[in-house]
Amino acid sequence: MFGSPASYIQGSDVLFKSAEYLARLGNRVLLLAGPTSLRIVGNEFGDYLINNDFTVTKVQFNGESSENEIKRVSKIGHDNHVEMVIGLGGGKTIDAAKAIADNLSAKTVILPTMASTDAPCSRLSVIYQDNGEFDHYRFYNQNPDLVMVDTKVIATAPAKLLACGMADALATNIEAQAVKKSHGLNMLGEHQTLVGLAVAQECENTLFAYGDEAYAAAIAHADTKAFDRIVEANTLMSGVGFESGGLAAAHAINDALSVLNGPVHERLHGEKVAFGLLTQLMLEGAATERFEKYFHFLKKLHLPTNFVELGIEDPSEANLLKVGKAACAPNDTMNRMPFEVTPLDVVNAMRGVDAYSIAKYSATHH
Predict the structure, then answer these.
(1) Is 314 annotated as a binding residue?
(2) Pairing of strands 134-139, 124-128
(3) Where, in this chain's numbering, is glycerol bound (predicted)?
(4) Does 352 carry a binding-site annotation?
(5) Fold of the CATH domain 159-365
(6) 90 marked as binding residue
(7) CA–CA distance, 93 with 184 (Å, rounded to integer)
(8) How many CB atoms lie within 10 A of CB 188?
(9) Is 150 annotated as belonging to a binding site?
């Protein structure tokens, strides 16, 4: 099985050319956006919709895609008889918008303001507890009706967010290949298609071909061709690739890191996935040359490759074992690996990555 959004549109200034596409989906809109997204583009976009004869209910997102927040906004949508829910912002806003649209049987429109995760195109949401701890994945019957990616808006975001998106996208093929080896199921609960695998592979090819140029462009807030290609890799290719290809260890470790307290809790999704994908390679016993390729790519993007950078203040056996146990939980994706992985395997692989990073780092700095 292969899944994808019904329509995907990417380009400079597409948000303010969106009325004709949105009109096909309905007229009564719930616009969900966080305070930053509202300030940068949301308020102006809300006015654009009103000027184009849409009825708009603007709701400020409180920051957590939790059951309570989803219930709160769903009630507002229900009271206003909305026909479509537009999620404008980052990963958690997008995940909440999908859940709200599902609750209301409304059309789902996703307008990412950053290319930092592969959430926009998928038919699932990551649901967190109110305290930000990973709770569960929520699945839907279909992908969003429309995903619109405005590269002009995305170019205004900090370069770090593009880097995080690249880490998330870099995990796509590594995980899809592991699922392939295990003859496992993808995130749609079915076997992979050749198309899903091809997209995951092309995602990786694009990252290695244009990643450095795009990151430089992001620092300068320049919407270049390379930047455009990486936005597509981070959003469309990674989104379709992870869902139709499947997740394995890298994302299970990302989810599991939410059990720790301290600075690691503040790290972005892509930062945790960066460490998770290196841990997966370590679990697989990847040859040094292969490991290096990914390690160097993440290093150039200033993403965490050891415990200190990841914000794990106390990498004690007890703490790492907590992560290992959570990563191997039955409701996560570690069981899609082509071999059995125990919590202790996870601990050893994490320690292996940390030690490699520190040895590498010392070698380059002394």
Answers:
(1) no
(2) antiparallel
(3) 118, 168, 251, 269
(4) no
(5) Dehydroquinate synthase-like, alpha domain (1.20.1090)
(6) no
(7) 30
(8) 20
(9) no
